[in-house]
Design brief:
Length: 514
């Protein structure tokens, strides 16, 4: 369904709560809606928006704001719903109906227009289940509005026969080809059907099997994180509570606590406005870097992302060495590995106890030591998620309570020589023993912008309704609730100027100015 509203008030659609409007607001709830839009008739430019949590609208927007509202429902008890899906022939019939509907769509718009296609989202009717069966559809064809899908790598794991039969009926294609697909997918692989497994581990499946989950772009990213942790699936737990939607996760390469979206993205499905067709984009071609990608630079405005496929794992992959996470877990009595990032395979499922039959406690694997059984709470994706949420709540403003777009500035990377000059300034200011926080980074040394902002005395500084956040000076907040874009930009410029003067570093905003 396509909905349109002229002179739309965007104040509830951007987390900064800027009171601005756009000439036209368009929302689509189905992939094929994008084929039906008469793009030339829309007020220009067209800007694709997710949850509006990395944006600063600097004034009323003269063009069209488009929101991809294709969502999965990860609401409570999704696991049970997933289980229900298996073996329900009625629902598979609905899938086939949907496929017939698809053919109609393709008939209307012509197959010739549908280039690439690729491992499209699952063929699941909107009303079938909140969390549908799925995975990628055949290459060369457009899929209908995606629901979530999952499947396992079949190279080392044969799924249960029941799952196989569902897969054959619902024509779900080989998921590993999703990861291998290129910007324009190879239609020759069309029809490579595969095995779709239910999300539960089958007895003959080793714990190291990957799980690919295709999530529609408009899904709240943290709903996906919550679901993954509750299913005992590893990958996105460190990214918990980052505001925004799954589509934007692939644009922004969101990151937190040592994990970036690029680490878990296997495939991106998008509408290509240049060709008027759907493509599957290999993440290796996306130019991912620190909070950036080709979607933000050379591809800007070209692709409208409709679904993202994430590669999750049943194998524990804890990343604990950033932002004090390890310490928080230790303080909570959680069994954290003493070194490295690996953990025994039995630690992956939810909050359950150490199963003795799987190796038990005190076992050393790959050089990693674990506490004795019974002495500590076993580590799980859910426990890491819970800790991350607590840490973030203490440091960052809750979007429901105070307007912001998260970290306002990127952390600069400078040369070693430049860093030595910063160290000299800091020792002059704070004494000879003072240590400047810093991290090794590709191309030099990363110095936290928050540290520089604080050193320049900006913590809590106000400009009209805008304020440098007291608990985390990297964040500028709409403190009054009525801050104007000018208030925010005025404060931004003050910060940039002060840091340039003191340290010779020009900060660049992470927040996108529209
Ligand atoms: C309190 C707070 C904390 C935050 N913490 C973090 C953090 O820890 N790490 C981090 O990385 N970020 C963080 N952010 C920033 C923000 O959450 C992320 O950048 C997020 O990915 C933005 O998602 P969104 O859906 O709101 O996208 P938007 O802000 O609406 O858009 C972001 C960009 O993505 C594009 N886009 C969105 N959807 C689509 C689509 N379907 N197709 C094509 N392009 C699209 C937009 O055009 C825009 O360029 C934080 C923000 C807040 C408010």
């Amino acid at each position: 369904m396509i909905t349109k509203q002229a002179q739309f008030d965007l104040s509830t659609r951007n987390t900064f709560r800027m009171k601005v409007s756009c000439a036209l607001y368009v929302e689509v709830t189905e992939e094929e809606d994008l084929l039906a839009i008469d793009w030339a008739s829309l007020p220009q430019p067209v800007f694709v928006m997710g949850g509006g949590s990395n944006l600063l609208f600097t004034g009323d927007f003269p063009g069209t704001v488009l929101h991809v509202a294709i969502c999965a429902d990860f609401s409570t008890n999704s696991s049970a719903k997933l289980d229900q899906v298996q073996g329900q022939a009625a629902k598979l019939d609905q899938v086939q109906d949907q496929a017939a509907k698809l053919d109609q769509v393709q008939g209307v718009f012509g197959r010739g227009q549908i280039l690439g296609g690729g491992p499209g989202p699952a063929s699941v009717p909107q009303n079938a289940v909140e969390c549908g069966i799925g995975g990628p559809g055949p290459r060369g064809e457009i899929g209908p509005s995606p629901k979530i899908g999952w499947t396992r790598s079949t190279s080392s794991c044969e799924p249960p026969s029941a799952a196989q039969s569902s897969a054959q009926t619902s024509s779900v294609s080989e998921p590993s080809s999703a990861a291998q697909s290129s910007a324009v997918a190879d239609p020759s692989s069309a029809g490579q059907s595969s095995d779709v497994a239910d999300p539960n581990i089958s007895p003959d499946c080793p714990d190291n099997a990957d799980v690919l989950v295709t999530v529609p772009a408009g899904t709240v990213f943290d709903d996906f994180c919550a679901w993954a942790a509750s299913e005992g699936l590893w990958g996105p737990e460190n990214l918990s509570l980052i505001p925004g939607e799954c589509g934007a996760s692939a644009v922004q390469n969101i990151g937190a606590y040592g994990v970036e979206a690029k680490d878990i993205i296997a495939d991106i499905r998008a509408y290509d406005r240049e060709t008027g067709s759907f493509v599957n984009i290999d993440p290796a071609t996306c130019g991912y870097g620190y909070r950036t990608s080709n979607f933000k630079t050379i591809w800007k405005g070209r692709y409208i992302i409709t679904a993202v496929t994430y590669r999750l794992s049943r194998t524990p992959q804890p990343k604990l060495d950033y932002g004090g996470l390890r310490k928080v877990l230790e303080d909570r009595g959680v069994a954290v590995p003493s070194s490295g990032t690996c953990a025994p395979p039995h630690m992956g499922r939810g909050r359950g106890p150490f199963p003795k039959e799987m190796g038990g406690a005190g076992v050393e694997r790959s050089g990693t030591e674990f506490p004795e059984e019974g002495t500590a709470t076993p580590l799980s994706a859910q426990i890491i998620r819970d800790a991350i949420i607590d840490i973030r709540r203490k440091k960052l403003p809750a979007v429901e309570e105070i307007g912001s777009a998260g970290s306002f500035f990127c952390n600069p990377v400078i040369s070693h020589e430049h860093f030595e000059r910063i160290v000299a300034i800091a020792k002059e200011d704070n004494g000879p023993e003072y240590a400047v926080p810093h991290y090794d980074a590709p191309g030099g040394i990363k110095v936290p912008a928050a540290w520089m902002i604080e050193q320049c005395g900006f913590k809590g500084r106000r400009n009209g309704g805008a304020q440098v956040y007291q608990n985390q000076p990297l964040v500028i907040v709409n403190a009054s609730g009525t801050a104007t874009p000018e208030d925010i930009i005025g404060l931004e410029q003050e910060v940039i100027k002060a840091i340039q003067t003191k340290y010779g570093i020009t900060l660049h905003p992470e927040v996108e100015h529209i």
